[in-house]
Write a structure and sequence with these properties.
Length: about 475
């Protein structure tokens, strides 16, 4: 990497390693759940909390952790988060019962939120040149794509070879090395001080609101419409948080960041896009296994071209295209490719053939390798040097909200459609395919909405059309 100095290469490596651990930890547990249930005596209703406890803590604390990183120093927050994550991983691997494991998973989510909330803030303040930043974001996005693809494979290998404990123990040496390198590589930053934004009431409102909202989403399959009450309470708390931020002397989240077209638009596009992409990440795999009767290994191999195309495009093509044409143009092109992939899936037949019905999707899904780095660039483009951690926390929060909402929406519509077709006398394969095709159709609509928002909201304003609301420190 001749475009980057050795010191900044080390910074990028440290940030990418943390991103890899965070993404891996979100998926690596799923394949080990049967072994965990058998060894620790989990009841079926409790087992999902090995995932839910992590998601609630992680998604609920990202915004708060991002702002605290600006106040006390992003380096300090990053190091503390990694330390909590390593300790929690050791505790999870040594768990002797359900309560101990669930508690450890919650602490893992806390540590992940603390570290990952400030990662993008550190990245954009380290790579200030537009060309270098595009390449760094491409490498960073590649790490995320690789982690998402490798999580289930690594989890299966470790569980079969060494036992489920090692899906947690593996984080310990990686985390320790990351902390040691971070102490050497990450530049020191003093932070603004807690007096610049120590809004305890706002922190309580936003954390409770986000945690309750994510809880409503992850519990929707268990509680059905009753979970909407949790969602409504979450919206009330988040609305109260916004009111509080508009009136507080030292707001936790200055509302000026939402007046940025780039920040607001990129985050909205991210929610719609990641909500839609759940259809590919999970529903396609379910279709292969439940309808086409692929085994787990066959499904993984069938999905491999998609993982390679996304990773390759984000690492090599996206930085060059963004530098030449701009992040907005790359985002629009990537969304068009994703729309093509989802449109192809809406017509998938019950007796689908891989080469003609699924492989084209695996190729078109490379659009994700264009969309994610472009969104990161746009979402962080208006971040100021004193609030880069907060903007990073907002961006990571909407990422989690988008994925969680996609899980709730698409799994619900697919299941409802399947049940209706079964009640009408359809075979199981036909009913499942009908449910999945409806999920793909909804995903197509979400991506179309993302394309419209990206085109309208993220367009460049005419010269002089927007004025700075207040004198602003240097942008990063």
């Amino acid at each position: 990497m001749s475009w980057i100095s050795r010191s900044r290469l080390l910074v990028l490596g440290v940030l990418s390693a943390t991103m890899l651990m965070t993404v891996l930890d979100g998926s690596i547990v799923t394949v080990a759940m049967p072994a965990i249930q058998r060894d620790l005596g989990f009841a079926s209703a409790e087992l999902s909390w090995t995932v839910n406890a992590y998601l609630i803590a992680y998604g609920g604390l990202l915004l708060l952790a991002g702002r605290l990183g600006d106040l006390i120093g992003r380096r300090a927050m990053f190091l503390a988060g990694n330390a909590v994550f390593v300790a929690a991983s050791l505790l999870a691997g040594a768990a002797t019962g359900p309560g101990m494991l669930i508690g450890a998973r919650f602490l893992q989510g806390v540590g992940s939120a603390m570290a990952s909330a400030v990662v993008l803030g550190i990245l954009v303040t380290t790579f200030t040149d537009a060309g270098e930043r595009a390449k760094a974001i491409g490498v960073f996005s590649f790490t995320g794509a690789a982690g998402a693809s490798l999580g289930q494979v690594i989890g299966g290998v470790l569980t079969d070879a060494l036992g489920w404990n090692y899906i947690f123990f593996i984080n310990v040496p990686i985390g320790v090395v990351t902390i040691v390198l971070a102490l050497r590589a990450l530049p020191a930053d003093r932070g603004l001080g807690l007096s610049a934004g120590a809004d305890a009431v706002g922190a309580l409102l936003v954390t409770a609101g986000l945690m309750l909202g994510i809880y409503a989403v992850v519990q929707i399959e268990r509680y059905g419409p009753r979970s909407l009450w949790f969602g409504a309470a979450s919206l009330v708390l988040l609305a109260a948080f916004l009111v509080r931020q508009a009136t507080a002397r030292t707001p936790l989240m200055p509302l000026r960041i939402l007046r940025s077209r780039a920040v607001a638009g990129a985050n909205l596009v991210q929610v719609l896009t990641l909500g839609a992409m759940f259809a590919f990440q999970v529903v396609v795999a379910l279709f292969m296994q439940q309808v086409l009767r692929y085994g787990a290994l066959d499904t993984g191999l069938a999905m491999l071209p998609a993982a390679l195309s996304i990773a390759g495009v984000s690492l090599f093509a996206s930085p060059r295209l963004s530098t030449r044409f701009g992040a907005r143009a790359v985002l629009l092109g990537g969304l068009v490719l994703l729309i093509g992939a989802m449109a192809w899936l809406t017509r998938v037949p019950v007796d689908a053939r891989y080469v003609t019905d699924l492989l084209p999707v695996m190729v078109l899904i490379m659009g994700g390798g264009l969309v994610l780095p472009a969104l990161t660039t746009l979402g962080m483009s208006d971040a100021r040097s004193d609030d880069a951690g907060l903007v990073s926390g907002v961006f990571n929060t909407t990422q989690q909200v988008g994925m969680a909402a996609g899980v709730a929406l698409l799994s619900t519509v697919a299941a409802s459609r399947t049940e209706g077709l079964l009640a009408g006398g359809a075979s199981e394969a036909v009913a499942l395919t009908g449910g999945y095709r409806l999920a793909f159709t909804v995903s197509l609509a979400l991506l179309a909405g993302a394309l419209v928002v990206a085109y309208v909201v993220l367009r460049r304003p005419r010269a002089g059309a927007e004025q700075a609301v207040e004198p602003q420190p240097e942008r990063v």
